[in-house]
Each structure stands twice: as structure tokens, then as C-alpha cells.
């Protein structure tokens, strides 16, 4: 099967329905409302790169894995075809064959895509106002509502490849919710554009999502799963079929429930299934039965098989009886999904009495509003540089005067000291933090930009404070006669002073909120990586209201572009190394700082853009790198969420208002091929192998050529 033409209905199965005249190389294809056609088996039940596409995902390893499984499945199926009628078959062999053949079909993949798309369609039909949609989905709060979760879970249960995914359901919910929220935000402007645009947007993505989910399920075909365990409990036998013979639907196998209704296998509740049917040739039917279930003489097998087909069925002859069955093609999978979604929406969403949403817990103490007493500068300011003594003293006086002016807006009590040094990196490393588990202080990689300022957490007199280090050259603009240079340097000082004040103030708020709400282990781990984003955004926005840096947007864009490119490059290489050494801690030690640096640059850019808009500057961004990686809508979403946190400043009432940012850290990890979640009392991170298969194969080929001297 390896190669571009990959069969989702294997050729070894189709040959059991091939025409005798062609020596089983051709087969008749029947579709609804069209004339039957005879086609080569190589051309039916297949698509180019159905499982693997080296130019996109490089997951050729899945295609090879299925090919290896085919050898054993094909041999066992060949023996089944030779069994006597009503012969009892080994349940493990039968279950393995049945699951392999039904799980890999395009019918199953298209059913999954249809389920997601139709769910959104049905939900959109019930929407009256945008506010209703936002509140019902939880888009306004950044977390899915119980109703949204219920609908998602019901649809996950209806799709075997999602239900059998190794990812926990709550992880699938978070991924689905964030992607939905990210893509809907672009079109939540007017009601009608939202309804039509959302469907169009999701329609362009569901095929890819379905492919990835389907392939994920296929990777575990040879593993123990609930479906395999259920099938192994059935009683299996082979029965014959009279002329003109059996047909093979595009879903391959079907099930019969306790009401006598038939469906493509995997759709009905497993508890209600009484039997399963799989035609293995034109004259042999594999039947799995629960208990004393049996097919009686009145049961029309071909009618049941054709009614479960979505697009076509296959047969060995052009026969009038088969032509008549074309009208029976009913796409039962879609019918069942429509009914399930209708029932779920009806139960979950009552337009007259929608689910109530808690307003959160109000703080008992006064809300933080940044008010403080103006006092003297009670910390040292040291300056060292390669300049003459006069300029050093002059710069020192200007900085002290600027800080005093800033103290009218920002509290200075959280500042432990300030250093202004030419040897910036050495000055950063020289700061004594007196903190346990605090990693050595470093600056950003030069490929991202030259570090100009850094706030370091230090412990002084039992409290966490900020020690600020500036690069001397970055502040020499304060000595300039050019307004823009002076403003840029003043803004840099203001932003760092604001960062110290915001960090101290928000820590107090979070401590108070934490005493009233439960702080989850996983949420705390993620928030350690998102808290700095909030501080960065708030400090830049606050500083820009005092001193506006006109070039801030373009400078920030350049840094954000470089940080994202650097992150993707470094983390991709580190992830490839992980495939060899298997040390997850080593991977995270490399990846997390790069992710944080990227997210900080994004928060900085968002703050500068909003500051520019506030000052009447609306110049568009020049080629943001987010567009290159399909993250432009994500950038708009994180910008909106950061702005909402600032808008609520002084009126925060719940941890959820801050934890809303956690999904953005997760979103970037997903983009980098890492899926984190909490497993009991530890953090687990899944790294799907398909992300790196193409590169690993390329490396392997290079190594082979080197060994061979070619």
C-alpha cells in the first residue's frame, strides 16, 4: 500500500467483490442517481496520500505501519473466505479484522468532519444575538461552559477516532474550544457575517482536523481499545449468501442494535449493539453476535448494507438487484449525527431560559487601584559606562529626576535597586537574587534583539522586589537633543518602573484571590508562564500614557517576528533531539524560555499597537510573522484578552480573569507539537510523532548516505 495511492478500503478486501472476467482486478461501483461503472480496484476506495503526505506532515510511518498490519489481516481474511457456512470463528481474529477494516475508511473520516461542521451549523441556527453566542459558548470568559462541554463530549463519543484518542477528553475540549474561539473572534462583528463566515471558516479546517484525528486513532490499531474488547466478546461465524451475492458499502462494516436498526459501525451506543456484519466477499458474510442474537431469513442483508453507505457500494456484477439498491443509499451516519446534535442542542440550549453564568466572587477588601503615597527614592542607582565622568553624572541626575516624576504615578516601594551598565550581561548576572530555585539570570539571544533592560525578582527584607538593570547605551538618549531619542529612553525607564509596580500589585491581588478560590496544580504551572505577559502588557500600556514612543510598534514588531522565528527554529531542533535522547526535562528547559520570550514580545507588541491606536496612529503592521504560521487570528485574540484584563483593572473579582490567558500558552505549545495536561499530580506532555517524521526520515537518509559514502 505504500506510495501516494493509499487505499482506505484495502485491495485485498475489494478483490473478494471483483469481477471474475477481470481476474478480480476490476469491480462495479454503484452510486445514488448515477449509472453503475466498472473500475479498476487500484482506483477505487483510495486517495492520494490519504494517510501520509510527506510534503505536509511527513507521517509516512503510519502508511508503512498499516501496510505491515495488512499482511497478517489479508492472510487471515483469506482463510475466513474458505470457511464453511455457519462455521464458528475465533473471536480475537474476527474482532481484529473487523476493527482494522472499519476504522480505516474514508467514510469514518468524512463522518467525523461532517459531525463537527454540522454541530456548528446547528448551533448557529439557534443564535439570536452575538452576546448570547459568546455567553453560551464561554467565549466572553475564555473558558467553555458546561453546555459547550456537553455538546463536544457527545460528539466525541459519536466519533471512534476521537473517543479512542490517547488525549484526555478535557484536553480535546480545550483544543476544540480555543480553536473555535480563535476563529470565531475574527467574524463576531455582525450577526449574519458571523453565521455564514463561521461555517465557511470551519469548513476549510474540518477536513484537516478529521484527518489528524483519524490518523491518531489508526496509530493505535494494534493496541487494546474499548472497541476491540467489545468485539472480542461477540460470537463470530461466517454465513453464505445466495445469488446475486453480497455488496460492500463504503463504510465496510455495520451494526444492528436492540431495536433492529442498522448503522455504520461505531455510531450507536455500544451498549445497544446486538450484532455486527462485515461482507468479506460476494458470497461470505462475517457476523458477530451478542448472546443469542441471530439474523433471520427475513433480514435483507444487502438492503441494510446499502442503507448505511454514504456515497457508494461495490459489487462483483452489474445486476438489476444491485441497481435497485442505489436508491437505498441513505447516509445513515449523517442522519444519526443530525438527530444526535439536534437532541443535544435542544437539551443544552434553551433560548428562553439559557444557562446562568456566575458573576464570580467579589473581593472583600478594597480593589487594587494603584494609589500610593509619593515618597523619596529609597534605593541605590548605580551607573557605569565607557563615557566621561561628566556625562555619567549628568545621566545619573536625569534618571533620578525622571524616576521621581514617575513616582507620582507608580509606587517605588517594590524596587530594590537600579543598575545602569555598559557590560549589560555581566550586570544582570551580578544581581544577588537570594531566591531559591531561581535560574541564573540571562539576557535574550542576540538573534532576537539586544537586551536593553531587565527586571529581576530579588528577595529583600523578606519580600519579593524588583531589581532593574538597564544597558547604559539604551539610556544615553536622555542626553540627546533629539526629541524622539529622549522620548524613547524615557519610555524605557517608565516601562520598567511600571513593570515593578504592577508585578508587586498583582502578586498581592492574586494572593487574595487564591485565598478564596481553588488554584489547580496545572493552572498554576501554566500561569507561571503567562503571568509575565500580563505584567508586560500592563506596564507598557501604563508607561505609554505618560510617555508615548512613536516608533514603538515597528520596533516591537521586529522583536516579535524575530522571537517567534527563533522560538520555532530552536524548539523544532530541540524536539528532534528529544526523539533521540528521550529526556523531556531537557526539552522543556530549552523550549519554555523560548516560548516565554516569544509570548512576552507578543504582549509587548499588542500593548504598543493599542497605545498607538489610543494616540490616533492606525498604521497597519508590516508583514507580521504570525501570518506566516497561521497565527494571525490568535494574535488578535491574545491582544483582546490582554486588553480586557487592563480594562478590568481595579475591578478583578476572580482568578478566572487571569487564568483566561493560560490557553494562549497552551496554544503556542500545540503549535510547536507539544500537548500538555495534568495527569494526577504531575504534568504530562504528549508529543505526536507525526510532527517530526518527515525530518527524522530526512536525517536518517542523510546518515545512510554518509555511511555509504554517497
Question: Brief overview, please?
Answer:
The chain has 710 residues and is α+β, with helices and mostly antiparallel strands. The chain contains 24 helices and 18 strands.
Per-chain topology:
Blueprint: E1 5-7, H1 11-14, E2 26-31, E3 37-40, E4 46-48, H2 60-81, E5 87-89, H3 91-103, H4 106-125, H5 130-137, H6 146-158, H7 160-163, H8 169-184, H9 191-218, H10 226-232, E6 235-240, E7 248-249, E8 254-257, E9 262-264, E10 273-281, E11 284-289, H11 301-308, E12 312-315, H12 320-325, H13 332-348, E13 380-384, H14 389-406, E14 415-421, H15 424-430, E15 453-460, E16 463-471, H16 472-475, H17 483-514, H18 521-544, H19 552-581, H20 584-614, H21 632-647, H22 656-659, H23 662-671, E17 675-679, E18 682-686, H24 693-708
Parallel strand pairs: 13-14, 14-16
Antiparallel strand pairs: 1-4, 2-3, 2-12, 5-6, 6-11, 7-12, 8-9, 8-10, 10-11, 15-16, 17-18
Helix pairs in contact: 3-10, 4-9, 4-13, 6-8, 6-13, 14-17, 17-18, 18-20, 18-21, 18-23, 19-20, 20-21
Amino acid at each position: 500500500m505504500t506510495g501516494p495511492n493509499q487505499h482506505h478500503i484495502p485491495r485485498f478486501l475489494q478483490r473478494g467483490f471483483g469481477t471474475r472476467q477481470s481476474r478480480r482486478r476490476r469491480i462495479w461501483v454503484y452510486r445514488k442517481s448515477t449509472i453503475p461503472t466498472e473500475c479498476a480496484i487500484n482506483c477505487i476506495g483510495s486517495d492520494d496520500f490519504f494517510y501520509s503526505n510527506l510534503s505536509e506532515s511527513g507521517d509516512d510511518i503510519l502508511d508503512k505501519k498499516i501496510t505491515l498490519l495488512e499482511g497478517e489481516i489479508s492472510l487471515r481474511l483469506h482463510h475466513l473466505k474458505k470457511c464453511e457456512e455457519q462455521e464458528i470463528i475465533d473471536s480475537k481474529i474476527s474482532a481484529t479484522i473487523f476493527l482494522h477494516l472499519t476504522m480505516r475508511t474514508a467514510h469514518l473520516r468524512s463522518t467525523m468532519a461532517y459531525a463537527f461542521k454540522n454541530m456548528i451549523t446547528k448551533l448557529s441556527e439557534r443564535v439570536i444575538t452575538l452576546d448570547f453566542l459568546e455567553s453560551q459558548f464561554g467565549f466572553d470568559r475564555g473558558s467553555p461552559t458546561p453546555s459547550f462541554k456537553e455538546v463536544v463530549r457527545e460528539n466525541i463519543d459519536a466519533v471512534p477516532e476521537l473517543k479512542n484518542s490517547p488525549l484526555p477528553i478535557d484536553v480535546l475540549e480545550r483544543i476544540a474550544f480555543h480553536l473555535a474561539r480563535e476563529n470565531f473572534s475574527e467574524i463576531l462583528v455582525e450577526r449574519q457575517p458571523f453565521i455564514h463566515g463561521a461555517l465557511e471558516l470551519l469548513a476549510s479546517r474540518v477536513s484537516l482536523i478529521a484527518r489528524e484525528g483519524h490518523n491518531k486513532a489508526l496509530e493505535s490499531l494494534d493496541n487494546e481499545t474499548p472497541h476491540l474488547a467489545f468485539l472480542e466478546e461477540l460470537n463470530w461465524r461466517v454465513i453464505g449468501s445466495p445469488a446475486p451475492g453480497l455488496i460492500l458499502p463504503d463504510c465496510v462494516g455495520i451494526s444492528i442494535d436492540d431495536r433492529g436498526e442498522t448503522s455504520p459501525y461505531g455510531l450507536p451506543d455500544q451498549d445497544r449493539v446486538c450484532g455486527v456484519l462485515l461482507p468479506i466477499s460476494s458470497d461470505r458474510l462475517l457476523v458477530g453476535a451478542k448472546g443469542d442474537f441471530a439474523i433471520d431469513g427475513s433480514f435483507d442483508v444487502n438492503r441494510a448494507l446499502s442503507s448505511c453507505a454514504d456515497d457508494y457500494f461495490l459489487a462483483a456484477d452489474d445486476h438489476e438487484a444491485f441497481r435497485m439498491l442505489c436508491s437505498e443509499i441513505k447516509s445513515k451516519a449523517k442522519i444519526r449525527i443530525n438527530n444526535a446534535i439536534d437532541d443535544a442542542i435542544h437539551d443544552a440550549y434553551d433560548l428562553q431560559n439559557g444557562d446562568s453564568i456566575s458573576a464570580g466572587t467579589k473581593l472583600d477588601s478594597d480593589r487594587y487601584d494603584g494609589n500610593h503615597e509619593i515618597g523619596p527614592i529609597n534605593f541605590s542607582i548605580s551607573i557605569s559606562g565607557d563615557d566621561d565622568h561628566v556625562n555619567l553624572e549628568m545621566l545619573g541626575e536625569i534618571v533620578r529626576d525622571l524616576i521621581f516624576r514617575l513616582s507620582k504615578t507608580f509606587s517605588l516601594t517594590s524596587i530594590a535597586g537600579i543598575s545602569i551598565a555598559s557590560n549589560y550581561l555581566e550586570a544582570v548576572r551580578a544581581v544577588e537574587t537570594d531566591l531559591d530555585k531561581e535560574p541564573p539570570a540571562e539576557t535574550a539571544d542576540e538573534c532576537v534583539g539586544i537586551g536593553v533592560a531587565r527586571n529581576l525578582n530579588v528577595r529583600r527584607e523578606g519580600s519579593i522586589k524588583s531589581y532593574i538593570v538597564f544597558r547604559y547605551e539604551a539610556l544615553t538618549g536622555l542626553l540627546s537633543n533629539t526629541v524622539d531619542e529622549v522620548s524613547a529612553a524615557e519610555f524605557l525607564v517608565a516601562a520598567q518602573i511600571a513593570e515593578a509596580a504592577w508585578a508587586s500589585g498583582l502578586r498581592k491581588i492574586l494572593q487574595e484571590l487564591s485565598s478564596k478560590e481553588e488554584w489547580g496544580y496545572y493552572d498554576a504551572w501554566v500561569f507561571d508562564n503567562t503571568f509575565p505577559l500580563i505584567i508586560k502588557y500592563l506596564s507598557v500600556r501604563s508607561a505609554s500614557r505618560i510617555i508615548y514612543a512613536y516608533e514603538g510598534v515597528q520596533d516591537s514588531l521586529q522583536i516579535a517576528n524575530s522571537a517567534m522565528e527563533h522560538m520555532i527554529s530552536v524548539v523544532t531542533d530541540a524536539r528532534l533531539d528529544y526523539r533521540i535522547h528521550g529526556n523531556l526535562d531537557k526539552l522543556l528547559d530549552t523550549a519554555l524560555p523560548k516560548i516565554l520570550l516569544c509570548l512576552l514580545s507578543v504582549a509587548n507588541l499588542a500593548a504598543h499597537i493599542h497605545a498607538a491606536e489610543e494616540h490616533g496612529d492606525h498604521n497597519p503592521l508590516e508583514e507580521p510573522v504570525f501570518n506566516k504560521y497561521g497565527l494571525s487570528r490568535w494574535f488578535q485574540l491574545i491582544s483582546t484578552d490582554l486588553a480586557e484584563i487592563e480594562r478590568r483593572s481595579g475591578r478583578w473579582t476572580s482568578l478566572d480573569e487571569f487564568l483566561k490567558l493560560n490557553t494562549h500558552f497552551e496554544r503556542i505549545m500545540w503549535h510547536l507539537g507539544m500537548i500538555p495536561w495534568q495527569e494526577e499530580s504531575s504534568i504530562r506532555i504528549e508529543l505526536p510523532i507525526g510532527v517530526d517524521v518527515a525530518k527524522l526520515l530526512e536525517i536518517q537518509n542523510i546518515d545512510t548516505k554518509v555511511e555509504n559514502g554517497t
